[in-house]
Amino acid sequence: MPFVLLWDNQFSKKPVKQPLTDFTEKFIIQEKSNYKKENVHMTYTVGQMAKMLGLAGSTLRYYDKEGLLPFVERSSGGIRMFREKDYEWLQIIECLKKAGMEIKDIRQFMNWCAEGASTYSQRKVMFEERKAHMEAEITRMNRALDMLKFKCWYYEQAIKDGSEDRLKALI
Fold it and tell me: CA angle, corner 84, sides to 35 and 59, nearest 5?
């Protein structure tokens, strides 16, 4: 659901995230806390959007340079202006990135999304492959975690015993 940032009053320093409803659309914050009664959607700078996503601004600029943000509008001065819908796309991009997907594959996914329903099967195959890769990685990571747990236990026992003698006899 789209949202806006509203201040409790003009002296408040911290905005409150509110769902975008008919009521909140009428009272959108303008520069310097001037309230303007209009049906306008908030725009966010690179820094603001990066902060909302917990990313560096340079990450968003990189994504734009790599062609992952064709939906982002620019002001007449060339400044990127993000909207609520862009936040959702950026969350998807971040999720895919965390899943280990390469930029070229994310770009392909975005292109397929723009092409519409005819690419559903390609997108499904892409995600099935990524899912299989992640499951294999989780299996490898769980094996490593099991070894670390064992070593923690092992050295905990060695500390209690004052040596590894008893443990070596068990193994």
Answer: 115
Pairwise CA distance, residues 18 & 40, whole Å: 14
Chain centroid offset of residue 98 CA: 8
Q: What are phi and psi of 40, to 5 degrees?
A: -125, 150
Q: Which band of pLDDT confidence, cut at 50, 70 and 90, is reported for residue 84?
A: confident
Q: Please check the confidence at residue 56 and state whether its pLDDT lies above 70.
A: yes
What does R_g of the chain's alpha carbons equal in angstroms? 25
pTM over 0.85: no
d(CA 85, CA 104) in angstroms, rounded, equals: 22
Stated length of the chain = 171
Mean pLDDT confidence for 39-61:
87
